[in-house]
Each structure stands twice: as structure tokens, then as C-alpha cells.
Amino acid sequence: MNKFLVAAFVISAITALDLAPQLALARSCSAVAATARGVTQGIATTKAQWRLNRYVRHNLSGARMGHAATNCQGWGAGKGVRPSCERSAIVCS
What we know:
This protein has about 90 residues and is an alpha+beta fold. Helices cover about 45% and strands about 30% of the residues. The chain has a domain at about 30-90. The protein starts with a helix and ends with a strand. The model has no long low-confidence stretch (mean pLDDT about 75).
């Protein structure tokens, strides 16, 4: 009985190690970004998020979006009246 359990364990370990690289290779990821302008930084951020979501929905079917980072510019003296925000994320399918 012990020989059978050891053999089953060895076979399952070999199978798991053999399948692991194939699962990692099957996944593809890409970086996606969307930019939007708004009256305030909050509006620009929200519009950029909507555009990013829309792009992923319409162009990358079956993809999952991870955490999105925001970068805003153009608020304050000498930088422009309307802020521009860019929302970027890594999308994997």
C-alpha cells in the first residue's frame, strides 16, 4: 500500500511540474492607457477611467483589468486651466 501511495505522489508531482509552465505561457498581458480632460481633477480621473473601461470592453474581449494608476497634470498657475489625467492599467487575458 505504501508503494502505491509513493508512486501516486511521484506521478502527481511530475504532472504538476509539467503543466505549470504551460499555464504561465498561455496568459498574455498588455499595458493600456486612456487620457481625459475635465473641469476638475476628479472629473478628469472619472472620464479617464470610463474611457479605459470602454477600451478594454470593446477591444480586449475576455480580458481582466488589474489595478489602474492615475497621473494628473495641468492644475494650477501656469499649467493650464483644465487638468488632464491619464489612467493606465495592466490587462491580462
